[in-house]
Amino acid sequence: xxxxxxGLSTTSYALLGLLALDGDPSSSLTGYELKQRADRTLRxxxxxxxxxxxxxxxxxxxxxxxxxxxxxxxxxxxSQHYRLxxxxxxxxxxxxVDADADFPVLKHPVALRLLMGxxxxxxxxxxxxxxxxxxxxxxxxxxxxxxxxLGDAEALQYPAMVAEWxxxxxxxxxxxxxxxxxxxxxLPPPDGSAAG
Amino acid sequence: xxxxxxGLSTTSYALLGLLALDGDPSSSLTGYELKQRADRTLRxxxxxxxxxxxxxxxxxxxxxxxxxxxxxxxxxxxSQHYRLxxxxxxxxxxxxVDADADFPVLKHPVALRLLMGxxxxxxxxxxxxxxxxxxxxxxxxxxxxxxxxLGDAEALQYPAMVAEWxxxxxxxxxxxxxxxxxxxxxLPPPDGSAAG
DNA sequence: TGTAGCATGTAAGCCGTTACATGATTGA
DNA sequence: TCAATCATGTAACGGCTTACATGCTACA
Lengths: 196, 196
Known about the structure:
The structure is a homodimer of 196-residue chains. Chain A is mainly alpha-helical and 196 residues long.
């Protein structure tokens, strides 16, 4: 049973986790609903996979026996509802317990541009950072909405903790970038290196 | 010439940027050296591509005319040294100026596990977080080394800024996670939800 | 003599995206 | 009746990794 324990991608486990988190154990979700859950939480500190990827993963997980589908019908429209199996729950549990979590990977296009700040004028770099600050604010509001929606129920205390972690992170990032903008403004003149 | 301006991946631009940053404009790097530069800086806020990927990108960039290779020979060993072309510099510049930078993507396996913290016992989660704190400290030391190595030369002030950004981020993350560990310790009992 | 580092590549394959294709249901 | 949302998939392809393969050079 447990011999395929290393075969799943992290995204697979993430989706398995979303199914496990969804209230009572007998509840089931469509691929579409799962994608919505992912958009709501997963995307802030992992990725929200594309719809097509969600369906692909659900099929893979079904093949492993970690989820099972039941076809439901309303009118002439059928949809697959997926539910975590006991095997799936065990697999998820052993992943949570065993695996050495990788160090987080940050793909930060803004930092990447700042690295090469010497190639463009300061104003332009400041604009990039300013735009990033705006985006950070948007994101913060979105995540604050998620946090509020999670409420204070004990069943959701871990998701709530993660959401707060994200909010703390955004706050810190906002501070850092604000300081960077100030610092850019008081930088010594760029000595004309911007030319090719 | 400029009609392929949207064709490069961010990693390509990152490598182009490393070539541009490498001291005097006439300097050139081997793929191997470029990979070392990437390991030193890029990996903290982007990714350090695999060797094979570095060579692939260099070939692609050569095809676009953004870098050019010269074969150098020492003993009976030959190696390709790559240098940014004027076109490459222009391409990089227009990317720095034009492109709307994407919002950063964070792939955070530790946060992902904490999300499902309710499925395992608190001790286990605390151990994950503690291990993450240790890794953060290692990373901080590595990045502090990079920051020191960059020095205070004006030519490297932007890379230095980015390194400091990273250090601030690690410091903030360390604080947040430390608080989380404390909070886990004082959490109400897990009410036995860990069973299947 | 042998190992670590320098240096370059090819092949296979996974993960994930975008684009495309289809059709039902709800509500304005 | 039209648009938005629900719902499900396939095809093509890009980016990146691991594993494999090769050979030189410096040094202990």
